[in-house]
């Protein structure tokens, strides 16, 4: 069996398993398995595949066919141009969340930033890696998630301070910016999630209560006590939550509330100022 045959067989297996991007996933797993890029593949695609490589590749294809996320198989996901290590204990970083980080970049010059519900640490570490913030602190309730975040912090050479905290329970002090991508999936939406998400990503990082707003309420209720007088708060939201999250911010006395859309034109970030 040639390397090209192996790739085609893998793609066919994933297609039959109902994987939407079967060709792309088959390629990523081949690249991961063999440690090659596209240029190298075109040079060796007609070569006979090593028996051990075939066995390893088929095993990975079988795991993906069972709907385990590609990123959990390879153990990594790129975010903001940075490669993050991930596992089943953290939410897989999404491109949508890059919109949130990009907005923080515009505000964080010489500022102290707090990232709540940090998960893999991708938001906090990206902000720290950008280099403009004075300090970056991040918290999460999950010890297992914080292990992943700390490993990313060390590997990427950033200096984020991570705290185990159930939202505000262990947070002291005042920050210039609070940013969060909290769990916001509603009870009804949880039932409709793809198997990759529903069965393999941590429920604690997904479920936001019956209406998806539990964490927004809890964060907003105490946010002003932890923000400077000219502070800012920024949230990622579900695409139908802008009005309700904006309403929660308005009720808490925040000003200059605005909504930022993602690349698909959907509401993705709600942000506001203390004054």
Structural account:
The radius of gyration is 21 Å and the shape is elongated. The N and C termini lie far apart (66 Å). It has helices at 3-16, 22-34, 38-44, 51-65, 70-74, 97-105, 122-130, 143-156, 187-190, 195-198, 214-223, 242-251, and strands spanning 76-79, 82-85, 112-116, 135-140, 161-164, 175-180, 227-236, 255-261, 267-273. The protein has a 7-stranded mixed beta sheet, with helices on both faces. A two-stranded antiparallel ribbon has the order 1-2. The protein has 2 domains: 3-66; 75-273, 3-Layer(aba) Sandwich (Rossmann fold), CATH 3.40.50. The protein is built from 12 helices and 9 strands. The longest helix has 15 residues, at 51-65. The model has no long low-confidence stretch (mean pLDDT 97). The chain has 275 residues and is α/β, with parallel strands linked by helices.
């Amino acid at each position: 069996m040639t390397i090209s045959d192996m790739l085609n067989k893998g793609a066919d297996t994933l297609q039959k398993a109902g994987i939407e991007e079967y060709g792309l996933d088959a390629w990523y797993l081949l690249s991961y398995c063999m440690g090659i890029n596209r240029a190298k593949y075109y040079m060796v695609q007609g070569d006979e595949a090593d028996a051990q490589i075939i066995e390893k590749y088929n095993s990975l294809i079988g795991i993906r066919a069972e709907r385990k996320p590609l990123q959990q198989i390879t153990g990594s996901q790129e975010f903001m141009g940075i490669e993050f290590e991930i596992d089943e204990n953290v939410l897989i970083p999404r491109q949508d969340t890059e919109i949130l980080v990009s907005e923080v970049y515009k505000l964080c010059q010489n500022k102290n930033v707090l990232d709540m519900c940090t998960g893999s640490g991708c938001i906090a570490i990206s902000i720290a890696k950008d280099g403009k913030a004075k300090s970056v602190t991040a918290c999460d309730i999950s010890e297992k998630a914080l292990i992943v975040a700390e490993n990313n912090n060390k590997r990427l050479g950033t200096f984020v301070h991570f705290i185990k905290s159930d939202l505000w329970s262990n947070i002291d002090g005042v920050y210039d910016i609070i940013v969060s991508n909290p769990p916001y999936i509603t009870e009804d939406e949880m039932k409709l999630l793809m198997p990759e998400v529903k069965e393999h990503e941590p429920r604690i990082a997904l479920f936001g209560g019956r209406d998806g707003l539990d964490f927004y309420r809890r964060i907003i209720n105490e946010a002003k006590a932890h923000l400077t007088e000219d502070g800012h708060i920024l949230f990622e939201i579900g695409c139908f939550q802008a009005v309700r999250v904006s309403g929660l911010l308005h009720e808490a006395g925040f000003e200059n509330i605005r909504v930022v859309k993602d690349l698909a034109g959907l509401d993705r970030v709600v942000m506001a100022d203390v004054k």
